[in-house]
Amino acid sequence: MSILRYILLTAFIALAAVANAQGTQLSFGPLAQDTDAPIEIEADELAISQADNSATFTGNVVIKQGEMSLAAPLVTVIYNADSSDIDALFASGGVVLISGDEAAEAETAEYSVTTGLIIMRGDVLLAQGLSTLAAEEMTVNLSDGSALLSGRVRTVLRPQGSN
């Protein structure tokens, strides 16, 4: 077992020992993400609303930004007042977020492009290598690659070599 993997495993075990309703802090994805990278969106359908500066993508929606991707059945994009830039994305209907070799799923996700925060809510499940964590909510800070899980955090840790 490499020294880095051993340190990470030790950290996860320590986190599991103190996981409670207050929350658990850990990392998500390969370091920080570039929130200024272009956002690519694919979907089966698009509806645009000039009245509230929004665009609603439906059906097999896949969003990519840098090394991060998000998939959901429905995503609403909110633009700023002059429609020149994206303020936020709201995904629902079962959301999958992938960054590097880590993946998370939840019922909904909100990505504030301006702050670089993603908040996933509802039966959050995070897979990191052989370890899994579950909670009611997860906040990912793309600026520093950190994540905070809260709302009765549960985990299963599988050391390398175990079945």
Describe the model.
- The structure is a single chain.
- With 163 residues, this protein is mainly beta.
- It has a single domain, classed as Sandwich (lipopolysaccharide transport protein A fold).
- 10% of the residues lie in helices and 57% in strands.
- The chain is built from one helix and eleven strands.
- The protein has one helix at residues 3-18, and strands at 24-27, 39-42, 45-49, 54-65, 68-79, 86-99, 102-112, 117-128, 131-141, 146-150, 154-156.
- Strands 1, 2, 3, 4, 5, 6, 7, 8, 9, 10 and 11 form an eleven-stranded antiparallel beta sheet that branches.
- It is elongated and about 55 Å long.
Number of domains: 1
Tell me what the CATH architecture is. Answer: Sandwich
Beta-strand residue percentage = over 45%
According to DSSP, the number of beta strands is: 11
Q: Give the helix proportion (percent range).
A: under 10%
What would CATH call the homologous superfamily? Lipopolysaccharide (LPS) transport protein A like domain
Helix and strand string, N-terminal first?
HEEEEEEEEEEE
Task: Note the main attributes of this structure.
163 residues, mainly beta, 11-stranded antiparallel sheet, lipopolysaccharide transport protein A fold
Give me the secondary-structure topology.
Blueprint: H1 3-18, E1 24-27, E2 39-42, E3 45-49, E4 54-65, E5 68-79, E6 86-99, E7 102-112, E8 117-128, E9 131-141, E10 146-150, E11 154-156
Antiparallel strand pairs: 1-10, 2-4, 3-4, 4-5, 5-6, 6-7, 7-8, 8-9, 9-10, 9-11
